[in-house]
Amino acid sequence: MIKPRIAVKAALAVDPAAPDPHHTQDPRSKIQDPRSKIQDPRSKIHNSIATRDKPMTDTVHRVIETQLAALGIPPKIDTVIYPSIVALFEEALATFREEAACSSVGHTLSYGELDRLSADFAGWLQNGAGLSRGDRVAIQMPNLIQYLVASLGALRAGMVVVNTNPLYTERELEHQLNDANVRVMVVQANVAQTAAAVLPRTQVETVVVTEIADLHPQPKRALINFVVKHVKKMVPKFQIAGALKFNDVLKRGAKTPYRAVILEQTDLAMLQYTGGTTGVAKGAMLTHGNLVANVLQSDAFFATHNMDGRGETMLQPLPVYHIYAFTASMYALRIGAHTAFVPNPRDLDSLVQAFEAHPPALFCGLNTLFVALCNHEGFRALDFSKLQVTLSGGMALTHDAAHRWTEVTGCAVSEGYGLTETSPTVSGNPGNGIQIGTIGVPVPSTEIQIRDTEGNPLGLDEPGELCVRGPQVMAGYWQRPEATAEAIDPEGWFATGDIALVQPDGYLRIVDRKKDMIVVSGFNVYPNELEDVLVAHPDVVECAAVGIASESTGEAIRMFVVSSRPDLSEEEVRNFMREGLTGYKVPKSIVFKDELPKTAVGKILRRELRDVD
To answer: Which of 61, 129, 294, 335 suits a disulfide with 472, CB 3.0-4.6 Å?
Structure first.
């Protein structure tokens, strides 16, 4: 196993205050380990459970810990062996200097090049942009190697990264830039038109524009950028007064080396805005400690997959501005892996080409992407001999999609669960114990409670709201103390809003999103169950169930269906569902559509479907 991973293995059962003999440090960073003085504001209550909670929680915790032991997963790990996410990735940059770090659009950066370029960007932020520690830097681009240069550079300079969706509308972008009080924005030219429209209504002082091939060597750089802009017409016209070019700021930064910043786990690292599938987006405050913890939790968990990591490829089609892909990229850096970015996963042909060009050991996906790829003839013809791990997150994984993926690729899907507010990983299916239909077991140092509507803890096999406590739980919502208080109780438990249960074997299963639950004549109906049944129909590509008002039953079920057969009828759909569901779960209304609305990550937007007449 490679050296950085040994550090975590050795720390699994150690005193957190003890020095780590394996921990190495880039001498340039000058970052001191402040573990002796770290005080998590929730630490006084983190290891205590209220007296009223103990009967139920003791049983649940005991069952989970027994299962973790059987799987060889430590229940707790030392999550403070690095003072910051910067210390973690700087160690990787120094250790794997000659290895490939990341690729996009046919060009690869080594760990050494990523180190140099991100340091240059950090230098410019401190000396050229005039920013101070803690200022916010927005990054708006698809999966490009420039993203890691900008994000790592911002973090090294002591700034706070604000990941920004390139598909945002003007309203959404304006809200985020103003809400986060962003001072510098890095934007890709292809999506800069929206930024140009809203920037005059924000306090953003400096804008840096990057083109798709800016980090490619010449003449390839000029050729690709010319084709993208003038031949493919992929760059809409825009005008941003005083905008700087990405390569120019890197050159300036190289002349003024950045000053290493002493960071602690309690320092804010990112404002990660929630997807907004259930309302207005809020900025989750993720600290350096949150990110370090989740990378180390993932590392300890991934030991069950027997992946060495160094030199292996992680194919990343999911947008890196989303927390799922971001933390996966940080994990890839830690283990010395090569992240192959796919800028546009909706272009299935290009994704299939990336699969062929960079045969992955690890693939990150979600349900809709698995379905689309398995239906692609070119994908089915690929060689999957190197594929060891397939991760699924972001939305529920259906049995049909999981089985089809395994049938096509020979690799089982490991479904996990997480949220923006938990950095994101809460649980996952271990490589030595995958259970389709579950979200696996909690990652190390993570506590789980299932609560009823009164907030009382429930026992095994009893569905209720899933609550989480651990070092990966956010510090709160940016400038929203009321929303923070609603989400995190005084004992540090974060209420996820998801209905789940703990099985007798310690595995967790999501029943459904609490807000998505449909109540039909007093009976609780969970859309995921209905969708899992219907998607098994050979002519159904995807589907989504929502509740609509009903005078007779309070709510009724409406099912939206995307079919591969134009003449599929409503009655055929109902008859198929009646075979596997009780009567009140069969939808009264069925609507056929060409496609379903989704977020950039591929999550179906039920909120928009509820508004369809």
So the answer is: 294
Measured CA distances, 396 to 6, 263, 429, 513, 602 (Å): 33, 36, 13, 10, 11
Quick check: 85 and 291 in contact, CB under 8 A?
A: yes
What are the φ and ψ backbone dihedral angles of 518, each rounded to 5 degrees? -110, 130
Pick from 541, 362, 528, 372: nearest CA to 437: 528
Q: How many CB atoms lie within 10 A of CB 249?
A: 24
Contacts of 157 (CB under 8 A, 6+ apart): 121, 122, 123, 125, 126, 131, 258, 261
Please check whether residue 317 is in contact with residue 372, taking contact to mean a CB–CB distance below 8 angstroms. no
How far is it, in rounded angstroms, from Cα 559 to Cα 182? Answer: 41
Contact 270, 424 (CB under 8 A): no
Which of 109, 182, 153, 186 is CA-nearest to residue 256?
153
pLDDT digits (tens, 9 = 90+) for 461-502: 999 999 999 999 999 999 999 999 999 999 999 999 999 999
Residues 377 and 311: their CA atoms lie apart, in Å, by: 29
Sign of CA dihedral 253, 256, 259, 260: positive
Residues contacting residue 130 through CB under 8 Å, at least 6 positions apart: none
Q: Which residues contact 255 (CB under 8 A, 6 or more apart)?
A: 123
Q: Say how far residue 516 (Cα) sits from the centre of its chain.
A: 21
**Chain center to CA of 389:** 17
Amino acid code (one letter) for 197? A
d(CA 93, CA 99): 9
Alpha helix stretches (DSSP H) within 12-144: 43-46, 54-71, 85-95, 111-127
In whole angstroms, what is the distance from residue 435 CA to residue 438 CA? 6
Alpha helices in 543-599 (DSSP H): 570-578
Phi-psi group of 167: left, alpha or beta (phi > 0 → left; psi -120 to 50 → alpha; rest → beta): alpha
Task: Answer for the pair 323, 113: CB distance below 8 angstroms, yes or no.
Answer: no
Rounded CA gap, 599 and 132, in Å? 33
CA gyration radius, the chain: 24
DSSP-assigned states of every residue in 462-490:
--EEEEEESTTS-SEETT-HHHHHHHB-T
**CA-to-CA dists, residue 503 to 62, 136, 419, 440, 466, angstroms:** 12, 42, 21, 10, 13
Token pair, residue 574, equals 């109902």
**Which of 224-233, 379-388, 604-613 is least confident?**
604-613
Point out the least confidently predicted range of 108-122, 431-445, 478-492, 525-539: 525-539
Residue 122 contacts residue 149 (beta carbons within 8 Å) = no
Other CB atoms within 10 Å distance of the CB of residue 290: 30
Packing angle between helix 323-335 and helix 85-95, nearest 10 degrees?
A: 40
Which of 565, 560, 143, 106 has its CA nearest to residue 322? 143
On whether the CB atoms of residues 604 and 598 are closer than 8 A, the answer is: yes
